[in-house]
Amino acid sequence: MARVCQLTGKRTSTWNNVSHSVRRTKRTFQPNLFWRNIKDPATGLMFRMRLSAKAIKTLKTKWVL
User: Which CATH topology does 13-62 take?
Assistant: First the structure.
C-alpha cells in the first residue's frame, strides 16, 4: 500500500541529499502517517483511515475525536 494520507493526500516526496562537497543524491521524505479510527458524525459509522499527523491535528480542532 502506498504511503498516502487518505484525507489530505500527502505522499512520499523526492528531494536531494546535498553533501559538504555539494554532491547531490536522491532521497525520499516519508509523510508522518498513523492508522486512526474516525467516527462519521452524520451516520455514526467508524472508519479506519491512514492519516498524517497534520490531518489528525486538523480533525481535533474541528471535530472531537
Answer: Ribosomal Protein L24e; Chain: T; (2.30.170)
What sections of 1-65 are H helices per DSSP? 53-62
The x, y and z cell numbers of residue 58, run together, are 486538523
- Return the ∠ at Cα 9 (arms to 6 and 14), rounded to 5°: 125
Using one digit for the tens of pLDDT, what is the confidence trace for 14-62?
A: 999 999 999 999 999 999 999 999 988 889 899 999 999 999 999 888 7
Q: Where would I find the beta strands (DSSP E) of 4-64?
A: 13-18, 24-29, 33-39, 46-52
pTM: 0.78
Contact 38, 49 (CB under 8 A): yes
